[in-house]
């Protein structure tokens, strides 16, 4: 449905149209079909570079796009006994509902010992479990990944581990652009991402996620 592309139009255009009319039609379509993204930071640190990346993404959103940041700080350690006997704890259920309602996910992960932090893996583990109606909030959800580190490797090893995890969750990650923010200390001031090339890269990543989400929705 909608205006997928100039060459593949499912809705008839006005018989006499020009480029401006088509551009406005595409914009109108986007405005009535917003993309809602949920962002998850893998760091609970107050001045986290990775949470800072998500704040930058929120400043750089394309039109008709929202980004809400999930809070994983209250999520308890995964215990299947708790899940089976009491159901999902309230902070887990909230995160599951937020992800289920979202059109796409944006994860900013630190690298801890060459992998994702335990707090992030723990949150993903909770959400990965089927609910009472076998619901799987991650199933076929578009995903974009970014990460920042003071080191020269910019979280590349953690991001590759996250991509491996995404296979089992049946998330649908985009591959490019890779947002590997190295020497993060040089790129943030008072918690805000100020490095312009990195800001442009984050904007490109969000745009790519929105494009991918719309493509999967058949728009
Ligand atoms: C780190 N750090 C780190 N950095 C890195 O590039 N590769 C690594 O493997 C690790 N390992 C690691 C383990 C643990 C337990 C800690 C606490 C830290 C450093 C890490 O990149 C740095 O603390 C970042 O600032 C963490 O991200 P936030 O909290 O700023 O988002």
CATH architecture of the largest domain: 3-Layer(aba) Sandwich
CATH fold field value of the largest domain = Rossmann fold
Rg, rounded, reads 19 Å
List unreliable stretches of 5+ residues: 1-16
CATH class of the largest domain: Alpha Beta
Helix content: 40-55%
Supply the number of helical segments: 7
The largest β sheet comes out as:
6 strands, parallel
Shape: globular
Q: Which structural class should the secondary elements be placed in?
A: alpha/beta
Could you walk me through the main structural features you see in this protein, from its secondary elements to its overall organization?
This protein has 219 residues and is an alpha/beta fold. The protein folds into two domains: 1-32, no CATH class; 37-216, Rossmann fold, CATH 3.40.50.360. The protein contains seven helices and eight strands. The strands form two sheets. Strands 1, 2, 3, 4, 5 and 6 form a six-stranded parallel sheet that branches. A two-stranded antiparallel sheet has the order 7-8. Residues 1-16 have low confidence and may be disordered.
């Amino acid at each position: 449905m909608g205006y997928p592309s100039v060459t593949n139009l499912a809705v008839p255009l006005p018989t006499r149209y020009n480029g401006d009319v088509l551009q406005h039609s595409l914009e109108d379509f986007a405005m009535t079909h917003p993309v809602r993204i949920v962002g998850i930071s893998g760091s609970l640190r107050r001045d986290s570079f990775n949470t800072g990346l998500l704040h930058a993404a929120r400043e750089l959103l394309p039109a008709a796009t929202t980004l809400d940041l999930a809070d994983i700080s209250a999520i308890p350690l995964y215990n299947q006994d708790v899940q089976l006997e009491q159901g999902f704890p309230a902070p887990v259920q909230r995160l599951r509902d937020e992800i289920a309602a979202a059109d796409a996910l944006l994860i900013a992960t630190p690298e801890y010992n060459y992998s994702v932090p335990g707090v992030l893996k723990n949150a993903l583990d909770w959400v990965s479990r089927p609910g009472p109606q076998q619901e799987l909030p991650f199933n076929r959800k578009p995903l974009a990944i970014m990460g920042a580190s003071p080191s020269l490797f910019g979280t590349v090893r953690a991001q590759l581990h996250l991509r491996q995890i995404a296979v089992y969750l049946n998330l649908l990650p985009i591959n490019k652009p890779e947002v590997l923010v190295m020497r993060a200390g040089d790129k943030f001031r008072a918690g805000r991402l100020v490095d312009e090339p990195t800001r442009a890269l984050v904007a490109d990543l969000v745009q790519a996620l929105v494009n991918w989400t719309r493509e999967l929705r058949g728009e």
